[in-house]
Every structure is written in C-alpha cells, then in structure tokens.
Write a structure and sequence with these properties.
The structure holds two protein chains of two kinds. By secondary structure, chain A is mainly α. Chain A is built from three helices and no strands. Classes of the chains: A mainly alpha, B mainly alpha.
C-alpha cells in the first residue's frame, strides 16, 4: 500500500488548523481562569462558565496537539514510507476527531446554558431595560 | 498494511463533526445574505459612524457566504472520509483507504481555507470597530 503517499496532501493546512486549535484552546483556558476568579466575587455563573471554558480549552488544545502529531506523522510517512508512521498518523487522527467532537459537544451544551444564564441575569436586574 | 484497521476509531465523531460543519455552513449563507441586506438598508443614515457600521455589517455578511460554502464542502469531504474508513474497516480494500486519505486531505484543505477567511474577517472587524468607536467618541465630543 505504498502508493498511499500519493494521496497525502494538505498537511500544511492540517498544521495550520492544529496551531489555531492550540492557540484558541490556550485562550479559552485563560478566559476560563479569569471567569472563575471573577465568579468568586460576582456569583456562581462566572464559576460555571469559567469551568466549562477551561474544559473546552483543554479539549481544543488536545485536539490541536493530536492534529499536529497526525500531520507530522504523515509528512514523515511521505518521505520514509514506514508502516509505523502511517499507523501513528491514523491513531492520532482518530484521537483528534474524538477530542474535537467532544469540544463541539461541550460548546453546543454551553449555548442553552448561556441562554438560561442570560434570562436569569436579566430577571435579577429588572431596572436594566428602563 | 492491513493491520491499519485496528487503529481506526472515532468515525462516529467524524460524522458528527461533518454534520455540524454542514449545518453551520448552511446557516452561515442565509445569515450572510441577511447581513448584506441589513447593511444596505442602514447605509442611508447621516452619521459617518453609522455608515461605517453599515459597511462593517455588509463586509461581515460578504465573508459569511464563502465561509458557509467552505464549511459545507469540508463537511461533505469529512462525511465521505468517515464512510471510506468504515468501509475499509469492514472490507480492508486498499481503494477505500486511498479514498479516505484523499477525502480527509481535502477536508483539512477546505477547513484551513475557512479558518483563513475567518481570521481575516476577525482582524478586519476588530480594526473597524475600533475606528467606529474612535469616530463616535470624536463626534460625541463635538468634533467635525
């Protein structure tokens, strides 16, 4: 199955997406820490969203690391054609989709939570709109 | 290289991400069109800050359309890649693995393009909002 190397392209794009994932993951973790610190004095909503943001950040960061690993393995496979490199690439790619899938699921779960939190905050500040 | 099948997992997650990409892409296109129409309607205002706001909305709307198209194509490629990997797991045909690699490579290419467009629009929006705020403050202080 050595002809597989001819079908491998876009590893540069994969590395770019990996870097974006790592950067956004780190940013989400920092945002979460700030949210928790603010939440300690401001209320529990900040703590909940801060914790979720940290979780989302860790998942995105892990996805980025796995994708970087995949792209590197594929680049090595293209030059060496060693079976082990392709196995590692497939393993890392599968892991990437699992981590990224969880990140999307958590982000989706945060949407209704955000709406509920907004309604809760809105109802606790009746004078806000007047 | 048949032992590769033992390393394939998470194809269900791939399909989930593919569906999410396609749905977000399908939502992004009408939102883009809506924003363009909204921006055109707000163009007639007198204030320069409002005019710039209308330009920002039009530009974001214009970028949302290619982002949506790229996301839909990426989603389709990822869905196909996941199907190819599932087929390879059951049949171990070399052709399925080749197709999977081809589709997944395409997925990352389209997704990368989408992220570039997203980055460009984010930077543009940040710069534009700063300009609008500065102008609004300037006119608010009685500048002419």
């Amino acid at each position: 199955m050595n002809s597989l190397k001819e079908y491998i392209k876009g590893t540069g794009w994969a590395k770019f997406i990996a870097v974006m994932n790592i950067l956004s993951g780190a940013f989400l973790i920092l945002t979460g820490i700030v949210g928790i610190i603010a939440g300690i004095s401001q209320g529990f909503i900040g703590i909940v969203f801060g914790a979720l943001s940290i979780l989302l950040g860790i998942l995105t960061l892990m996805a980025g690391i796995k994708l970087w690993g995949t792209a590197s393995n594929l680049q090595i496979y293209k030059s060496t054609e060693k079976e082990e490199d392709m196995k590692e690439a497939i393993k890392n790619l599968s892991d990437y989709f699992i981590w990224y899938g969880w990140a999307i699921a958590i982000a989706l779960a945060m949407v209704p939570l955000g709406i509920i939190a907004s309604l809760f905050l809105g109802s606790s500040m009746p004078g806000l709109l007047y | 290289m048949n032992s590769l099948r033992g390393y394939i997992k998470g194809t269900g997650w791939e399909k989930f991400i593919a569906v999410m990409d396609m749905v977000s892409g399908a939502l992004s296109i009408p939102i883009g069109i809506f924003l363009i129409i909204l921006g055109i309607n707000r163009w007639g205002t007198e204030e320069i800050a409002s005019k710039l706001g209308a330009v920002l909305v039009i530009v974001i709307g214009t970028f949302a359309i290619p982002i949506g198209i790229f996301l839909i194509i990426a989603g389709i490629k990822l869905w196909r890649g996941a199907k190819n990997l599932e087929n390879y797991k059951s049949t171990e045909k070399e052709e399925d693995m080749k197709e999977a690699i081809k589709n997944l490579s395409d997925y990352f290419t389209w997704r990368g393009r989408m992220e570039v467009v997203g980055l460009v629009i984010s930077v543009f929006a940040i710069v534009f909002v700063i300009v609008i705020l500065v102008l609004a403050l300037w006119y608010g202080k009685g500048g002419s």
